[in-house]
Write a structure and sequence with these properties.
2 copies of one chain form a homodimer. In chain A, strands 2-3-4-12-5-8-9 form a 7-stranded mixed sheet. Helix content of chain A is about 40%, strand content about 20%. At the A-B interface, β2, α4, β4, β8 and β9 of A face β2, α4, β4, β9 and α7 of B.
């Protein structure tokens, strides 16, 4: 049995994914947005947030009635540069796309736009929304509440969210700067991957219920540590960033934060978001800004390097390289993922198959 | 010889500090702002950014002609929700205070306001500007370029800035949420303190030129590690946050970033900043928001605790306790600091002495 990845081009993968959502009752325009964002994550190399999760996450949640396929997404509060949206339990892709567009339209008018979203669901890879701003020469910001996964400093067991910070900044000839990070030492996907491949994890990623570092994923009875790891090495910074994201996404949108959730208020995949856009042209001529971004990138590349290091990578550079390669050669998917997608296509009788 | 701290009340300390700045040619209103911010840092317990640095940092730089005591601080670009200011080498306190006020006035009108500042100097503790927003029920953001201190992943020796992220969020009965962090594993002040007290530092804070962790501060020939420490534990996140702060403060204001600096473009204490304000009332009624912040804080306090832990502290809670204590009992200063301030008072012939 081979585990060689199967390469599928972005176009057909997007078309197939959209067809799956349509078959589940998602309107065509929304299905196209959801497919775009899932495949965009795969193109960037964020495999943990791409089509591999289509069947187990999104399809399952639509079938469970957790996700509303025909939501009434409304703007419930608004100012010149801000808004609050209620997603009505929409697919996070659809709510996120609409909210990011609103933030950008406000930035177009006023220089800055910020939109919080309550009552939403998992929106995939945060960077996919931040990079939308690049098309209009804006800086894009995308934050989201993540599932409960992280141990607060002083806490016992996971109590706070694996919340995410994504920021995209346009450049000229260089790749755009795209930061896309969870506020834990590692994203939950890294542990899933280690479990799948039966590999140990480095001591310092996660702990048991007594806060002892463990290397066997099965023994992670506590949770993942916040970025920084332990208090002496900055855990309060990772913890602070995680809580900040929850405040901006949840409190500021009128929703609940991760430590407030229980069985009655939560369900797998619930989420809140916060989007922002800053229009570069409000600060300086766009061409000048992009030239300066290129110079900034090159100055980092030109820093003295450690022995054996050929290149210093800035946030988003590896993803840009991956995207170039995958656009040309297709997205490499695990054969099990391809099999599950083909099964889904048969079952739903999608017009196109993979 | 005693090293017992000497307690001095905030009022007289502020008055003395303002008098020092005035004697050096700073206009009275600006001197009062600078003194306010320095003493506010001491009140919060950020001793590394308070009056202890008055003589060696600020007074010295004014005397060296690095800081312009009568600057022409100008807004060089502006939109409804954004602005760029040129600080004309002002004291960072004065430029920062003016820029944060501008961001708040834009947020008052439009819900959000963001102001970048170029050509400025060291502005002390970042939190002092973020908390200004609390007075008007806004969320405050304050970012600043720091001095070159951090080793980029893959780099050899310090190459990027000890850049700072500060965010303040108003609460009701609970202490406001105030995150105030450098994007390194530790702030440079922690190394200064260890050197001063001849104490070792934990392996993992800083490295030598060959990227080996060192515990003797004198052997830190490389620099401090980015938050996360090593790539396996999230160093690219700390690095990414540091670069992001430099982009928003420096590229977006039309100034240069840390890795672009050399002897011809830099001087000790140069800095750039980025300020933001989000008006809570644009998102929801202020009272409702504050109540929800209190509930969010209490939900974190109520999380299961590790053995022996009495309380989980959120960002800003310890500082709020420290401030209550120091307002009542005075700010504890090292006797050497008090001696240096008294000497400064004699030398400048300030009207009040400490």
């Amino acid at each position: 049995m081979t585990t060689e990845p199967v390469r599928i081009l972005a176009g057909p993968l997007r078309q197939f994914t959209a067809a799956v959502f349509e078959k589940l009752g998602v309107p065509a325009a929304d299905a196209a947005i959801a497919a775009d964002i899932l495949v965009a994550a795969d193109l960037r190399g964020v495999d943990s947030h791409g089509v591999a999760h289509l069947a187990p996450f999104y399809v399952q949640r639509i079938r469970d009635g957790r996700v509303n396929v025909t939501p009434d997404i409304r703007t419930v509060a608004e100012d010149a540069a801000t808004a609050v949206m209620d997603a009505d339990r929409a697919l996070g892709f659809v709510a996120g796309h609409r909210a990011m567009r609103l933030a950008m339209s406000k930035a177009r008018e006023n220089g800055a736009g910020f939109v919080t979203v309550r009552n939403s669901t998992h929106y995939g890879a945060g960077a996919c929304y931040a990079v939308m701003a690049l098309e209009e020469d804006m800086i894009g910001i995308s934050l989201t509440q993540g599932g409960v996964a992280i141990v607060a400093p002083g806490g016992r067991g996971k109590g706070i969210g694996s919340n995410v910070i994504s920021v995209a900044v346009p450049a000229g000839e260089e790749a755009p700067f795209v930061l896309d990070m969870s506020t834990g030492v590692v994203a939950g996907g890294k542990l899933e991957l280690a479990a799948l491949n039966n590999r140990p994890i480095p001591a310092g990623w996660a702990v048991d219920l007594d806060n002892r570092p463990v290397t066997d994923v099965k023994k992670v009875t506590g949770g993942i540590l916040p970025l920084g790891g332990t208090p002496a090495f900055g855990a309060y910074k990772g913890f602070g960033l995680a809580v900040l994201v929850d405040i901006l996404s949840s409190v500021l949108s009128g929703d609940i934060t991760v430590p407030e959730m229980d069985e009655t208020t939560s369900f797998p995949g619930r989420a809140t978001h916060f989007f922002g856009a800053l229009k570069v042209a409000s600060f300086m001529p766009v061409e000048r800004f992009k030239q300066r971004m290129d110079e900034m990138v090159r100055a980092h590349h030109a820093l003295p390097k450690a022995e054996g290091v050929e290149r210093i990578y800035l946030a988003g550079e590896i993803e840009a390289e991956t995207e170039r390669d995958r656009r040309a050669r297709g997205i490499p998917l695990h054969p099990d993922v391809v099999a599950s997608l083909r099964e889904l296509g048969l079952e739903l009788n999608t017009p196109d198959r993979l």
